[in-house]
Each structure stands twice: as C-alpha cells, then as structure tokens.
Amino acid sequence: MSIERKSSDRRKLRAGMVFVLVVAGTALIGWGGLAAWQAVTQNNGSTASTLGVHHSNVATITGGTAVTCTDQTSPAACGAIFDVTGIVPAYGPTQVGTVAITNTGTEASNFDLFLKSATVSGDNAFWTPSDTTLCADLQLTVTDSQTVPHTLYSGPLSGMTTPVALSDNGGHALWNPGAANTFNFNLALPGSSPNSDEDSMCTAAFQWGQNGA
Question: Residue 76 has what pLDDT?
C-alpha cells in the first residue's frame, strides 16, 4: 500500500508541475504581447504645385483707345488691331494698329502669332460675292519693338497662316514671367489692285499662342 501510494503521489506531482508550466508559459506569452513597445512618426503638409501659362493682350487701333484682354477673361474677344476705311489703290504702307503682349504667368514661355481667319464681304450694295480678292491683295507687315525692330511678316494679309515665332523686347525667344513686347501692324494696297477689290471689306482674326517651356 505504501509503495503504490508513493507512486501515485509522484504521478500527481508530475502532472501538477506540467500544468503549472503550461499556465506559466501562457502567462508569459500574454504578458509579453501587452508589454510590446511602439513608436510612430507622421509627415504632414506635403504639397506639389504647378506653374501657369498666361498672358495679356492690349490692342490699340491707331488713333483709338487701348483694349485689354487676357487668356483667362476674354481669350476670344480681344479688341480689333485695325479699322481702316476709305482705302484706294496705292494706299500706305501705314501703321494701323499695335498689340502689346506680356507674359503674366509664372512659367517661361514661347510665343507665336498667325492669321486665324480672313474673309471678304461686301462694304456696300455694289459688292458681289465673286469679289473675294481683297484679303490677298492687302499687304501686311508686322514688326516688333526691339531696339532694332525685326520684321516678323511681310506679304499678303491672307498668307500669314503659318505661326511666326516671337521674341520679347530684349530679343529673347523664351519669355520669362513679366517679359513683354509690342507688335506693330502696317497695311498697304498696291496701285495694281484689281477692280474686284472695290466695295469690299476684309475681316481678319489673329491668334497669339503661348507655350510653356
């Protein structure tokens, strides 16, 4: 009886020790999870911004009042550059208007100019739809206002359909913000102007382009 009791007691003691070790291990694991250290950092307010491509256009008919527009407020409704009446053969050349362009944006840019459209219509009851030659017969010359002016275009008004690169008044092809130049428009009608130019009116639209560098 004594031997069996001691053996049984030893088995109970070993089982109890195993239970205590399992409970202790579980407690250690749980405690270690609660005690893990943590740290964080956070970067706030990171931003990315862009530059802008913008310009102003101030058109002045010779003898008239300056009309100012911008690409934001009225890009398709800038003032007329010229308004000439009473033209006859051998007219001019005469300066008929100017346009001052200023890079008002924040990005350095390239500028160009071309004829967007030119149409002939009747100036009075004597005009006929077959008389469509005036825009081609009017001679247009465009110069800039550098210290030594450059001729940017000289030829038939209707022929200025390819963009002409423009420089600022310092002669730079790349216009920095704030750079400007004034462009002078001159018209002439040769003495050889045909009868089909009579009683006609040429209406032209010029477009100024700006491209960020």
Answer: 87
